[in-house]
Amino acid sequence: MDMNPPPDNVNQNPPVRKPRPKARKLTYTKKRTQTQVKNKKPPPKRPAIRKITQTKRTKSRQQLYEYTSESDSEESDSVDSESDDSATDESDTDSSDEQPSRKRIAKYHSTSEFTSESESDSSESDISMDTSQQVTNEPIPNDVEGFNSSLCTTSEPSNFDINLFIGPTSFAVAQEVGYSYARFRHQGNMRCPKSNCEDSFSIKDLKNSDGSFLCRLFCLADGHGGSGCSAFLTNKIPSRLENMLCQYDYSQLDDQKVQEKFKQDITLLIKRLDDEYLDAKREEYRKWQNDVIHNRGRSNQVEPVDDGATLVINLFFGEWFINVNVGDSRTLVGCKTDNKWMVEFSSEDHKPYLERLALQIYSNGGVFVDNQDKPIKFDPFPQERNVRANLKNARIRLQAADNDLGVPYKNNNGIHFSLNVAATCGDLLFKLNPSKPVISCKPDIFFEKLGPFTEYNGNRFMLMSSDGLFDHLYSNKAELQNQTIATCIGQQLDARCQLKKIVAHLCNREGDRVLFENTLQEYDDCTCILVLM
């Protein structure tokens, strides 16, 4: 055994070799080197696009706004400013203290000046047709501050040629042009407004033959397919109604026979106006078709537009309120009882699911289809219920639409033209056979005796609006829609908000997420007329 010590140059503690670290794993779909990954540039940022998906609602939405008067809003502003100062001081000393939750309040401040365009009246002799379908991006001035809408205009009684000392003198009108959002990512959230508004309204004083005041007229027509029919109705109705009402005395309307005679006369008046417009359309299509044949398939004229319109007429005739309704535009009367705003009257929308209209549509050659143009089964036997549940979202088209006039009945994709309303004026395609029209223009007429206007102190109002207001609400039931709108208007009236701001608030459907849907791609024209009674 060797007992000699080891030499001095020998290391008694040899170094321990450390394990080599594991290589980093690359999780890519394709095999790439690390240098390629390092040199890769990040993708460019794309502009944010508008989401179209709709969130599911499980609970009923509650009112998130409180409408306060202008004086109350000034006091709340001062209180908020003081609370903000105190909150900042406390945050400097002790940042861990919890701040109290604040209640969200929508405040409306009065504007110092107000300017609006006067009501545009086209000539009564010509029937204007909407032939331009171009989209313009030019901004339209907004008359109301505090609302995020550049397409809304408002009007007050001073903008109309009426007697401000007779009848309902407190009213306001707001109208917003329909628009849609861009469908391409590079365009972002740009609004694309329609070339023109298809809604038309008229507010006039009808007079006797001696020039004295007869009644006040509020007329609204919601056009579809063009603005020709709506403009035609609002131009012709005032003079025709004036000639008819001169034969009546409002003190005799208590008699049921007089009311029945009134209903017959105004129904005949609307039918004659409808026939007059349809005859003009037939003549336009005949001239256009002859020009196409003469030029061997080409025409130098612009192809006619087959359009139509719904109609709402509200008359304040002495002590009487008279409502005339054709289509799905709506009139709502709200009143305050026991410190609650309730719905006193509302017109009924003429929809395909109504039993009294569905039978007539089917017997005259109409077919009920869904949004995909697929037929819906229909039982031709009368039902006991007033509403057919399977036709809740139905549309109307024709069984056989070939015609000698050349009125188009299909679009470029081969889908039939259809309507979701069961009563209109115009719409030649659905009235090619005058003796059996698929869709009629017969109105619903309602009478209510109000008494002298001096008896009411702002506890009742009348709202008339196109379907652009009600179709964008969260609820799709007419009763809930009416009560929601009545409560919203009543709260703002209690807070003494200006009428023009109330109607502008209703028309600006993207300004109130409590009432309206917020994930829509397109917004229809919207017109609201609010009258204090």
UniProtKB/TrEMBL annotation:
Feature: compositional bias, Basic residues: 17-60
Occurrences of domain PPM-type phosphatase (ranges): 178-533
GO terms assigned for molecular function: protein serine/threonine phosphatase activity
Compositional bias segments (type: Acidic residues): 69-97
Segments for region (Disordered): 1-149
InterPro entries assigned to the protein according to its UniProt record, in alphabetical order: PP2C, PPM-type-like_dom_sf, PPM-type_phosphatase-like_dom
Classification via Pfam families: PP2C
UniProt cross-references to PANTHER family, sorted A to Z: PROTEIN PHOSPHATASE 2C, PROTEIN PHOSPHATASE 2C 39-RELATED
Entry protein name: PPM-type phosphatase domain-containing protein
